[in-house]
Amino acid sequence: MVDTRYTSHLNAFPPVQLPSPLTGMEMETGEQRQPQAHRAPYPVQDVLDELPPALSNVHLTESEQLRDSRDPRDPLAGYSPQGRRFHESYAQAVADAPQFTPQVQLHWCKTLLELSQDAEFIREYTINGEKLPQRIADSKTASRNQKIMLEHALKVLSKLIKLRHAPAFYLMGGLYSHKVEGLSRFQFIERDDARALSCYERGARLGHGPSCYRAGLSFEFGRGTPVDTDAAARFYRMGAGASDVDCMYRLASLFVEKQISEGIEWYLRAAAQGSPHACFELGKIYEFSALTPALQQRLQQAFPGESFPQTTRALQYYYKCAHEHGYSLAQWKLGHCYEFGELGLPVHAKKSLAWYYASVSGGKSAGTTANAMGMLGLAGWYFTGVPGVLQPNWQEACKWVSQCAAHTEGKLARADYILGQFYDSGVGCPRDHHTAQIHYKRALAHGFHRAAAHIDNTEGAGA
Questions:
Q1: Does the N terminus or the C terminus of the chain have fewer Cβ atoms within 10 A?
Q2: d(Cα 345, Cα 315) in Å, to the nearest integer?
């Protein structure tokens, strides 16, 4: 039978309605609603009441419940890592049910949301954290199990929102904006940036830094509301007051374009609090040549007693960002400097290779992904080779360029142009004029105009 020790504590609260699924077209195209005119935030109750229709209350049949055949020496024998994690979170939530500690219950809610989207998990475990004796084979029963988990997750979330727990507003906003860490599938809720913003605003007014950040982004980039950089700055300031480093960084980015001295001050504060993004931007400021001419002029006017560039200070920030934060963009930058002898560094192939490899490993900073330019840097070294260090390997060079093009989804025109040349000449890959033309055209479409002549040269050529 389903254990009601925990769920009974929630029955006094109105059920939260699960959002209707997206249509197939919306799921495939990622179609979003157009920004709406700014309006007063939804009341808390409206956020709950306006969720789309509820799922029916469905339960697993008796035959689908766990038969107690577990090893008494290890009650979780045979459980997967996900199963053990779910069971632990469930047990904590049950023990905490009388107190309903927000942090414990929010963790349980997130666990339910995450693992309800795991196609294998919903076929093997119940909402009580119990492993089924047999894997659910039919999709209909698995779907019912998934709905039970989703419905309960939103019921927990609704109570947390009623308790005005700020991270709960943040999570609800994340569900509406399809931005929740650990979740990649949101078929159960239609994207609605306006409602997401309403939730973020509520969380922000409770002093929650991440909610301030998301609200600021919404106003800065017009998600669910017209663009309003003044409103964005207000929310970023609120978040900075709550020591949110992402808010400090975004505030700095806004001020650099208007009041550069204040922008740099916020970059310094964010970097001191561990922001790799701010650290990298400070490196660019001291490097100077990486800035736009307009920004260079404003910098010189704001600091007439300073001389630019200051390569030593630039390198200090780049090293700190690359080494301490594992920020892939800074790692690529150092690889580039050691390849071409920039910022006063010597040309050093081994160090360049090492930093390029670090940059494509994904880094250790939150949100850092493998760096596409680092992939091109490795391709270049494999193409030419390094005497005594690396033998030329055109196949490996082609592989890295291909990875770069795939990683950027064709948006880095230079990668497609190089691939076009490889396929056109049969370097590192079979000669294929048709494939070469595809890459040349893609490069041209993204602004790499040198590809135009090659498209003409390969037009009508055989594969």
A1: N
A2: 9
